[in-house]
Amino acid sequence: MKKILFTTVMFVFSFQTIVFCQTENTVLKNAVSKIKALTVDHITEKAYLQFDRPYPYYVAGDIVYFKAYVTMGERHELSTISGMLHVDLINKNDVLMQSIVLKLNNGTGWGDFSLPDTLQKGSYRIRAYTEWMRNDKAPYFFDQYISVSSVNSVDRITEAANQGTQPNLQFFPEGGNLVTDIHSKVAFKAIGADGLGVNVKGVVIDNTNKEVAKITSSHLGMGVFDFIPEAGRTYKARVTFANGSQSAVALPAVDPKGLTLDINNNDPNKLSIEINANRAYYAENKNKDLNMVVYCAGLIRTYNFKLDNEVLGLDLPVSDFHTGVLQVTLLSATGEPMNERLAFIQNPDQLNLSISTNKPSFTKRENVQLSLNAKNKDGNAVNGYFSVSVVDESKVSVDEDAENTILSYLLLTSDLKGYIEKPNYYFAHVTKETKANLDALMLTQGYRRFVWKELLNDNLTAATFRPEMHVDISGVLKTKGGDPIINSNVILIEKASALTLIQQTDAQGRFRFANVDFTGDTHFIVKTQSVGIGKNAAVLTLDEPAAGPAITAGNFIDAKYNANADILASLQNNQGTGVVTANNESTKVLLQNDKYTETTKSDNNNYRSTKLGGSGNADQVIRADQILPGPSLSDNLKGVARGIDFTNGVPYLQNSMIVSAGMMGSVPMLIIVDGANTSNIDDVSISDVETIEILKGPNASIYGVRGSNGVFVINTKQMSGIQPIRSKEMSPGIFSITPKGFYKAREFYSPVYDPAQPASALPDLRTTIFWKPDVTTDASGNASFNFFNADGAGTYRVEIEGIDSKGNLGRQVYRYKVE
What we know:
There is one protein chain. It contains 9 helices and 55 strands. By secondary structure, it is mainly β. A 5-stranded mixed β-sheet has the order 1-23-22-25-26. It has a 5-stranded mixed β-sheet with strand order 3-10-9-6-7. The longest helix is centred in the N-terminal third of the chain and has 16 residues, at 26-41. The two termini are 52 Å apart. Mean pLDDT is 85; it is low at 1-23, 575-603, 659-663 and 719-725.
C-alpha cells in the first residue's frame, strides 16, 4: 500500500505578539502522530462516476453509461489499494436491482446499466464502493440519483405534501461559539420544508429590542453577519422568509469568557488567522500555552504559542496548500479541542484541459474531429486518464451549477457532512462572489474526515474489510451423502482459451482458485478426481459472493423525481417507431394510446424487444425455453437458430460470402445485446436470455449497411439482481460452471455516416451524441477522437473529466454549433 508523506513544520512568526515555539510539544506531537496513523492506517478511498450525460435524466429503455475514478489518500491519487469496484442499481424502495463488479486498472474502469423499457417511472440510485471503503464509520460511497421517465407515461409524479411549511433557520458562530465583548462572525442557513435553501432577511435584536445586525441571505439561504455580543444579553433574529412567513429564532447563548477563531480568506494570496480572547478569559489564562493544528489535503502544520495578548494573528501563504478543505483547530495546553474552523483553499492547481474541433460549426450528421490537450499547473504535458461526453444541449438544458463533477465531488462534497446544494456553482465560474459564498458554506458545514475528540481518544474503527484485487473461484466438494471429499484434485478449465488450473481439496473438501480474473460470464469446466456412484457421487458447490453493505435510505432531497426527465420521454414519444434515439440503438415498442399493445401469448410479436422498430418483423424468434442445454449459448443454439453457423461464439449466415481482394470469406452477423453492439454471444449467460431475434435480408435493412450480413438480437431478462453462481453436472465428475466475473462494458453505439451514400431515412434524434470512457493522453498530453452529429440542430456540449497519475484533477466544457 502506498503511504502518504506528511510535512510537520514548526514556524517562528512575529505578528502582533505571537511567538511560535520550535521546542518539542507533547500535545502537538500526539496530534501529528494521530493524523499520520489515520492517513496511513486508515487511508481513504473515494469513488467518483462520470455519466454519459451532465444531467441525471434518463428514459426507460436507455443505457446508463459511466466512467469510474477511484482515488486514495488526501491528494486523490489513482488508487492502487483496490482492484475491484462494486456498482449497484437501486430502486426507489431502496431495493437492489442490479449489481456489477468493475475491474480497476490504474484506479479507473467503466460500465453501464441497461434500463428496461418496462421500468416504472421514478427516482433510482447508482451506488459505487470498494470493500476497503466499508471500514470507515461514514463510508465514502458514491451515491447518485437518476430520474427515469417512460415513453408510456409522461405525466408528472405527484409529490407527497410537505410535512411543514415553516422554513428552518440555523446559526453557526465562527469557530464554534459566541463570546462576550469579541467581534464575532456568524453564518446562517435557512432551509425550506423541501430541504433546499430559501431566501431570508431580517434583523438581530437583543433582549432590550435593540437592533445589533441585519440579516440578508446571499446564496441558497446562506449568509454571514457580524456583531459584538454584550455581557448579560441574549439575542434572537426576527426574519421574513421567501414565502412570506415570519419567525423569531434565538441565537446560541453567549459565553461569558472564551476564545474565538477567525479566518479571513478574501486575499487570494494569504490566509489570515486571528485568535481573540475576551478580557475574562485572558485574565485567567495569560501566558498559558495554546496549540494550533492546520490540516489540508495531507499537509499538517502545527503551532505552539503563549497567550500573551488578547489578540494573536498569523498569515499563511495560500500557495503552500493544495485545493481542498482546510481545517484549523485550536487546542488547549492539555490537548482539548477548543475552537475549529473550516475554510476552502481554491488554487489554480488543476489540470489545464484544452479542447478544440476541426471546425467552428458543423452540419447535421457531419463528422466531428475533436482534440484534447492536457497540461499541469506548470504548463507541462501530462499523461492522464479521461472520459468524454457529448450531448445535444438544445433538447435539455444543462444546469451547470447543479452538476456533480469530479472537482465538486472529490474536492468538496465528499469531505463535508450534510447536503450540498448546487455543488458545481463554486467551481464552474470562480469569482469573488462565489468564493465569499463558498466561505459561508464552510461556516455552516461539518468536516467528515475525522472528529478531533474521537481521533485523540483512539476511537477509530479497526479495518475489518480487506481490499479486493482479483476474482476467486472457490467452493466445496462433497459426496451426495454430505461427506467432504478430501485431498482430491479439482481441475478448472476455461473453455475458450483452454487455460487449465489444478487445486486440491482440504480436510473440509474446500478448494480455491485464487486470482482467476475473467470478464463477463466466462464458461468453465470443472473436473474432479473422484467419480463415485450413488451416495458417494461427487457434488460440487460454489461459494456465493459475499453480501454487500446494507442499503441505507438516500438523501430525500436528491430522491425527488425531476420532471425534466419527462422532456426526454416526450421527445421519444413524438418520434414514432424506428428511430435512433437517446444514447443507444434501442427504441420504444409500438404504442397504441400511450400503452403497450396487448396481444395473446401465441402472437409471435408479443415479446419485449430492443431491436430497431420494436418487436415483430423477425425471421425467427427464439424464446428462452427453446434453447437447448449445453456449455455455452452458441453451442446451445446449434440446430435451433435456422440457417446460422457459429464459430467461437460468432454467428454467420449460411451461404453468406463476400469477395474482397480476390479472396472469398464469410462476414459475421451484427450482434445486438439489449440495444448495444457486442462481438460475441457467448459473453451472455444462457440463463439471462429472454428472447433472440434473427433478422435477414429485408428485415435486417433497418440497420442499414451494418445489417447487410444479418442481425442477431439478444434481449436479456431485466432487473434480475445478483444472479447466483451456476453449476451443472454434465457427466459424473464433470461440471459446467458460469461464475460471475468482472463486468464487460457495452460499447457505446455511435453511427457512421458515409457522405458518398444516400442519407438514411431513419431519423437520428440521439440525446447523448458520443460517449468515450477510455481517453488517455500521450506523452505530449494529446488525444483525439471523432464522431458524427445527429439530426438535432443547435448547441452540442462536450464535457471532459479526468485525472493524471499524481492525482491532479481536470475538467473542461466546450460547445459547438450544429446548423
